[in-house]
Design brief:
The structure is a single chain. Helices cover 67% and strands 1% of the residues. It is an all-alpha fold. Helix 29 runs antiparallel to helix 30 and helix 29 runs parallel beside helix 31. The longest helix is centred in the middle third of the chain and has 14 residues.
Length: 730
C-alpha cells in the first residue's frame, strides 16, 4: 500500500429459414401494444422500466387474405437480412416497408426484429416490430428475451416469456439458459423450478448447456443441495459445469470444498480456463481468504495462464467486500506493476478502499489517474467517486460533483442518497428520493434499501415499515437485502425482538403484517439474515428460538459457513449453553479469527476464564492471528482474574506485533487491566507512551486512579483533561 501511495501521491443458432415463397400475411391486429417510442433521441436508463403492456389478443384469420407476390427486390431484401448486417438494418427495414416484404414473407419481420434486438440502442425498434408481427417464431422470442436479459429489463423479459407460453410456443434449449439466468439474477426461484420441471419432461437436461444453466441457477439462488444434485446427474460435463459448481461452493463460503472440486477438474481431464481460475481466485477473496487468492494467482501463472484484468478485479472486489482496504490497494498496485490496464470495474472497486480508509488525498490522486486514463466517463465510476468523497468527509465536493454531472444514473442518485443517510441526514436522503421522481427517474430497490438501513440503524421502526409499504406500492419487490438491513439495523440498535419478529414474518408474510400492508410473497433468509437473527436471539437469551434457527441452518447447509458457526457459538454461549457452543466450535473446520473470538468470549461470559486463556494459546499454536478484539477480550479476562503475569505477556505481544497502533482502544484496555491487577505504575506507563490520547484513554486512566484510591492523582488528571478539552466521565 505504501508503494501505491508513493506512486500516486507526489512527494446465430436461432436462424430459421422458411421458404421465400411462403404465403403472405395481410394487415392484422397487434397481439399487444408497446408504450415505447422509436425516437432514438430518448435517453436510455440503466434499468429501464417495462415497455410492454402485455394484453394478448387473438390473431386475425389470414387464410383468405390477399396474397402478394414475391419479387426480385424482395428476394434482394431477404438476402441482405441473411447477411446479418446489424448496422444497416434500418435501411433494410425501410426497403422492406417500401416493397411490402412483411406481407410477402413473415420471415422478413422476424429476422429484422432479431437484428434490431442485438443493438440496445435500437431495442425500441425491435419491440415495435415484434408488436406488429402476426407470426412470431421461437428464434424471434429468443432474441428479444436475450436482449431484455442483457439490458436487465426483467419485467419485459418475463412478460414476453408469458406471451410465448400463451401462444403455445415451446422454449427450446437455446431459450431456457437465458430464462434460467434471468431467474437467477432476479431470485425468481419458483419460476426457475417450474422451468427445471419443464426441462426434465422434455429431456433437455441431457444438453450440457441447459445443465450448466441449472447448476448456475441453483448456485445463485443459494440452493447448494440442488446445484450439487443437478451436477451429479449430468451425463456430460464441461469446464463451465465444473466452474459453476466451484462458484456454488464459494457462494456458500465453503472454500475447502470449492478447492476440492477445482482440483477434481484436473483429475477428470478438464482443462481449467481463465474463467474457472477467476472464479476460484475471486471466491477466495470474497470469503476473506486474501492470501489464498494471491497464492492461486501465482499458481495460475505457473500453469501458463496470465492473470487478466478480471482476475485482479475479483481480488480487489473481494478485499473491499471484507473491508480489507489496504489489501485492495496492494492488489491494485500489483496489478499496475503487472502492466495490466485497469478498466471501469477496477476503478469503481478501488475507490471504496480510499473511502474505507478515509484517505482523501489518495482518493483525489486516483481521481486524477482516472481522468488521465479517460476512465471517468462511466456511471459506476462516477457513483464510486461520489461515495469516496462523501465518506472521506468531503460531502460538499460530492454534492458539487453530483450536481455537475449532466446525465445521472440511478446508481449516482443512490450514492448521493447513501451519502446523506450515512452522515445521519436520512431526511435529506428521502428528499432526494422525491427529487428522483420529479426528474422522471423511478427509484429502484437499492434506493429504498439505503434509506431503510438508515431508519433501522436509528431505531425508526414505524418510518421503516412505511417506506417498505411505499416500496411495494411502487411495484417494486423487497429483496433479501431489504430484510437484511432491517434485521441487522434493528438488532444493533437494540430492537432485537423486532428483528426476530421480522425474521419469522418474512418467511410467512400472511401470518404477520407490516403496519397496514402484507408482503406480496415470502423471502427465504440467506446466511446474512440468519446471522442477524441469531444475534437477536443472543441478545434476548432466547435459546429455544436459537435452536430452531440452528435447525434451519442445518437444513440449508449454512452451518459450514464460518460466520454462521461463529454466530451460533455466540448465541449458545450468551444463552449459557456453553456445551452446545463448544460442540459447534469443534465441528467448524475452517475457523477464522471471528470464530475463535466468539468461543473465547463465550468462556469469559460463562466465567470459565482459565479455559478462555487456554483457548487463546491453542489459537496461536494453530497459526491463527488474533485481532484487537481478541486481545481486548483477554485483557478484560486478565483484569477480572488479576492475572498480571498473563496480562504482561499480552502487552508484550501487542508491542511486538504493533497491532492497531492507530487505535487507542487497546491502550485503554491495557490501562484498565493493569489497574485491576493493582499495577498502577504500568498503567501510567501505557498512558504516557500513547501520543494520541482520545477521551476513552483519558477516562481509562482516570478510572485507574479512582479504583486504586489515588484521589490526588485523579484530581490532577481531571485538570489536565480540562486543558485539552476532554470531559471526565466519572
Amino acid at each position: 500500500m505504501e508503494l501505491l501511495r508513493s506512486s500516486f501521491l507526489p512527494n446465430t443458432p436461432f436462424f430459421t429459414d422458411p421458404s421465400p415463397s411462403q404465403p403472405p400475411i395481410n394487415l392484422h391486429t397487434p397481439k399487444f401494444n408497446f408504450r415505447a417510442s422509436i425516437d432514438t433521441n430518448t435517453p436510455t436508463l440503466p434499468n429501464p422500466q417495462p415497455h410492454l403492456a402485455f394484453t394478448a389478443k387473438k390473431a386475425s384469420d389470414f387464410s383468405n387474405s390477399y396474397r402478394a407476390q414475391p419479387t426480385s427486390e424482395v428476394s434482394h431484401c431477404i438476402s441482405l437480412l441473411r447477411g446479418n448486417h446489424v448496422a444497416d438494418c434500418r435501411q433494410i427495414h425501410a426497403l422492406a416497408l417500401k416493397l411490402n416484404a412483411f406481407e410477402v414473407n413473415s420471415w422478413v419481420g422476424n429476422k429484422l426484429a432479431m437484428l434490431y434486438s442485438k443493438n440496445y440502442e435500437r431495442l425500441d425498434y425491435a419491440q415495435k416490430l415484434f408488436d406488429e408481427m402476426p407470426e412470431r417464431t421461437v428464434p424471434t422470442y429468443a432474441a428479444l428475451i436475450r436482449a431484455y436479459c442483457r439490458s436487465e429489463q426483467w419485467e419485459d423479459l418475463f412478460g414476453v416469456f408469458g406471451l410465448m407460453v400463451e401462444e403455445g410456443m415451446v422454449p427450446d434449449m437455446y431459450v431456457v439458459p437465458t430464462l434460467l439466468k434471468a431467474c437467477a439474477l432476479t431470485k425468481m426461484v419458483g419460476i426457475g423450478r417450474m422451468i427445471h420441471g419443464f426441462v426434465i419432461r422434455k429431456e433437455m437436461d441431457l444438453d450440457v448447456f441447459v445443465g450448466n444453466s441449472l447448476v448456475d441457477f441453483y448456485a445463485n439462488c443459494g440452493d447448494l443441495g440442488f446445484a450439487v444434485s443437478v451436477f451429479g446427474a449430468m451425463r456430460e460435463k464441461d469446464v463451465v459445469s465444473w466452474t459453476a459448481l466451484v462458484s456454488a461452493y464459494m457462494n456458500e463460503g465453503l472454500c475447502v470444498e470449492a478447492l476440492e472440486v477445482f482440483s477434481l477438474m484436473k483429475v477428470n481431464g478438464v482443462k481449467r480456463d481463465l474463467i474457472s481460475w477467476n472464479v476460484l481466485v475471486s471466491g477466495f477473496a470474497k470469503n476473506g481468504e486474501i492470501e489464498m487468492a494471491l497464492q492461486y494467482l501465482e499458481v495460475m501463472q505457473e500453469e501458463g495462464l496470465r492473470p487478466r484484468v478480471n482476475s485482479w478485479n475479483g481480488v480487489i472486489s473481494g478485499c473491499i467486500q471484507n473491508e480489507y482496504f489496504e489489501d485492495a490497494l496492494d492488489a491494485f498496485y500489483r496489478m499496475l506493476c503487472f502492466l495490466e490496464e485497469p478498466n471501469f470495474v477496477t476503478i469503481a472497486s478501488i475507490l471504496p478502499a480510499c473511502a474505507g480508509l478515509k484517505d482523501l488525498n489518495l482518493g483525489r490522486a486516483i481521481h486524477g489517474f482516472i481522468l488521465k486514463r479517460q476512465l471517468c466517463d462511466n456511471n459506476h465510476v462516477e457513483g464510486s467517486l461520489i461515495g469516496m468523497y462523501s465518506k472521506c468527509g468531503s460531502k460538499d465536493y460530492a454534492e458539487k460533483f453530483f450536481s455537475m454531472t449532466k446525465t445521472k444514473s440511478i446508481g449516482m442518485w443512490n450514492e448521493m442518497i447513501a451519502a446523506y443517510v450515512n452522515s445521519g441526514e436520512t431526511e435529506k436522503g428521502i428528499e432526494l428520493l422525491r427529487v428522483m421522481h420529479h426528474h422522471g427517474l423511478k427509484p429502484d430497490v437499492v434506493s429504498y434499501n439505503t434509506i431503510l438501513a438508515g431508519h433501522a440503524r436509528n431505531g425508526q421502526k414505524n418510518e421503516a415499515y412505511e417506506l417498505l409499504h411505499e416500496l411495494v406500492q411502487m411495484d417494486l419487490k423487497p429483496n433479501i437485502v431489504s430484510f437484511n438491513v432491517l434485521i441487522s439495523g434493528f438488532q444493533q440498535f437494540g430492537l432485537s425482538f423486532e428483528a426476530l419478529k421480522l425474521f419469522w414474518t418474512m418467511q410467512s408474510p400472511c401470518d404477520g403484517c407490516f403496519a397496514d400492508f402484507v408482503l406480496p410473497e415470502s423471502i427465504q433468509p440467506n446466511s446474512i439474515t440468519v446471522a442477524g437473527a441469531l444475534a437477536a436471539c443472543a441478545d434476548l437469551k432466547l435459546l429455544s428460538q436459537g435452536k430452531e434457527i440452528h435447525g434451519y441452518t442445518l437444513r440449508c447447509g449454512f452451518e459450514r459457513n464460518v460466520y454462521i458457526s461463529s454466530a451460533l457459538v455466540d448465541m449458545y454461549s450468551k444463552c449459557l449453553d456453553i456445551d452446545s457452543a463448544t460442540e459447534v466450535f469443534r465441528r467448524t473446520e475452517d475457523r477464522n479469527t471471528i470464530c475463535w473470538n466468539s468461543m473465547i468470549a463465550g468462556h469469559v461470559n460463562n466465567m470459565q476464564l482459565n479455559l478462555a486463556l487456554e483457548l487463546f494459546c491453542d489459537m496461536l499454536e494453530q497459526g491463527v492471528e488474533p485481532s484487537s478484539i481478541t486481545l481486548m477480550i483477554l485483557l478484560l479476562t486478565c483484569g477480572n482474574m488479576t492475572a498480571l503475569r498473563f496480562g504482561r505477556a499480552l502487552h508484550g505481544y501487542i508491542i511486538k506485533t504493533q497491532l492497531d497502533e492507530s487505535d487507542s482502544t487497546l491502550a485503554s484496555a491495557l490501562v484498565g487491566m493493569f489497574a485491576k491487577c493493582g499495577s498502577i505504575k504500568e498503567a501510567k506507563s501505557v498512558f504516557d507512551f500513547e501520543v494520541k490520547r482520545d477521551a476513552l484513554l483519558w477516562n481509562a486512566m482516570l478510572s485507574a486512579y479512582s479504583t486504586n484510591g489515588m484521589l490526588n492523582n485523579a484530581l490532577a488528571l481531571v485538570g489536565e483533561m480540562e486543558l485539552v478539552g476532554v470531559v471526565p466521565e466519572i
